[in-house]
Amino acid sequence: MTTEITDVEDAGTWRGNIEKIFIDIMVNEVNKGNMDSGTFRTNTWRRILLEVNSQGKRNFNLKQLKQKFNRLRAMHREFSDLLKHTGFGWDVETNTVHALEETWQNYIWAHPNAKRFRSKGCPNYNLLGLIFNPSIATGALHYSSTQDPPNTDDEDEMDDNLEHGGVHVDVDTEIPDDPPQPEMAGGVTTRSGKRVTDSLLERRGKKESRLSQMGDALKAWVEASKARTKTS
């Protein structure tokens, strides 16, 4: 008799925002350095359990949390593998994947669990990367507490890293450059004498929206950085 939990059963147990609460608490513990060799220490697990039950008004036991942890890790790995497969495009702002019908059918035939990603992608994928692949995820988001906050150029680089490669897809994956943008009339000249095209201005204008979409992951780092500064 199998004890595997189905997606329907999982959704019923972790309904509402309880899954997000669990993920946020785990990210906070990771940022405090309480994850060792891919899992949490015993005392950390107990603290997570208390926090999840308190914030989510639930009565989970430790076994349920660890089972959910394993399911989230498997989902994160499966979605990461999908993103590296030829023919799939990732919308970083919505964490959804786009591909031709034939591409989807062929991939789902070989990887049946990937069917769930077709309609809703992988919720909280960026945050899961901070938990299950922190060495790569924090490479795109990390600044030490002794460094100044990222300036405009730093934010541009972070935007590009997230938009084109995600925060925790294999760093060896070859990422194509942006197609060249044609210069359009109506550009402006900066104080340094460089021309800025309308398309570039439009891209800059969308910065706030893009940063907002990736804000959960970045916000988690900022809060952890503040905590480290206060205790240093």
UniProtKB/TrEMBL annotation:
Residues 174-215 are annotated as: Disordered. Residues 14-107 form the Myb/SANT-like domain. It holds the Pfam family Myb_DNA-bind_3. Residues 195-210 have a biased composition (Basic and acidic residues). It comes from the Eukaryota. This is L10-interacting MYB domain-containing protein. The lineage of its organism: Eukaryota, Viridiplantae, Streptophyta, Embryophyta, Tracheophyta.
